[in-house]
UniProtKB/TrEMBL annotation:
The active site is at C81, H338, C368. Belongs to the thiolase-like superfamily. Thiolase family. One of its GO terms (cellular component) is peroxisome. Keywords: Acyltransferase, Transferase. Pathway: Lipid metabolism; fatty acid metabolism. Residues 2-252 form the Thiolase N-terminal domain. GO terms for molecular function: acetyl-CoA C-acyltransferase activity. This is 3-ketoacyl-CoA thiolase. It catalyses: an acyl-CoA + acetyl-CoA = a 3-oxoacyl-CoA + CoA. Pfam families: Thiolase_C, Thiolase_N. One of its GO terms (biological process) is phenylacetate catabolic process. InterPro entries: Thiolase, Thiolase-like, Thiolase-like_sf_Thiolase, Thiolase_acyl_enz_int_AS, Thiolase_C, Thiolase_CS, Thiolase_N. Residues 260-380 form the Thiolase C-terminal domain. It comes from Hydnum rufescens UP504.
Amino acid sequence: MAVRSALGRQGKGQFKDTKPDELLTAFLKSTIPKLNIDPALIEDVTVGNVLLADAGYIARAAALTAGLPHTAPTQVVNRFCSSGLMALSIIANRIRTGEINVGLAVGFEDMSATPDNGAPKMDEEIMANQTANDSTMPMGWTSENVAGDFHITREEMDQFATMSQTRASNAHKSGLFEAEIVPVEIKSKDPATGAVSRITVSKDDVIRHNTEVNTLLKIRSAFPQWPPSQTTGGNASQNSDGAAAVLLMKRSRAKELGLKILGKHVATSVVGVPPRIMGIAPAYAIPAVLKLVGIHQDDVDLFEINEAFASMYVYVVKTLGLDVNKVNVNGGAIALGHPLGCTGARQVATGLAELERRKGKVLVTSMCVGTGMGAAAVFVRDP
């Protein structure tokens, strides 16, 4: 199983009145019936989350409330934007070593309730180290550095952003996302009366339909203080709320249970890059994981690369020479949003669903990671 919730715009969207514990509990309640197994078979739950100070408490309480038994332990992992993928990799590796047979990987973020306030103040010695200092800088600064250092134009950035929005809009309107989205029931507050009711959320509200390049080109820079000042609210990932989950187990166990196998997690690679140009990381993480598994990028049918900023999206596609018709074919984070802890698992749900539609074989997911890191993973679809 690889599924996600619909995604909601931070502060203004469908999850704006939903607290983090409520969102995770509601998502897990909707997900458990999709497991098609007795929840008692789950031997570990790993949750990727970035912003919640109390994530360990919330993960455990939400899992128990949603219907997972007390025998299924939980843990939280935080490697910034790759946290959902790290959760998946941890579960996969525990299965590989024989420590467990069945595990659930979850990624979630409620950015409406826990906005990203950036790095805390640090010791003078750290701030005197230029590279360490760079790792504490806002991500918008790193986007501008990528654009400036590698001569990426504003036009290129807005063209890629428009492509993301158009693809996501088409996928939304044609119902493609229905295969990966589980409807979630949440509380909603009427802004006029304050009355609280329960609603079911099943469609993304983050996509900006009918986006055009000329419109994006008119948007002012979000970071005029940092040249070349080309990053805008139109060509960067949106902050959003959402969750995703992936069920993993040994092939032999899946066959015993009569389950359809969606695909195989083959390997994950994590790399470090200069923090000031954080966004270039997928251009290093992708070759690293492909080398690890012994295949060439031409063997890959689909890429899901997190669109943190259009500058990094353009850089990665151009540097690796990727076919844009294989990359984020249903849009990426510029259109769908980037709920930090959720994205790594969300990309797997989106990618495997599309791989199944195309009857393809190999999926690669990747993302740049805050503070100067990157991650990538290879999945192979079962025919």
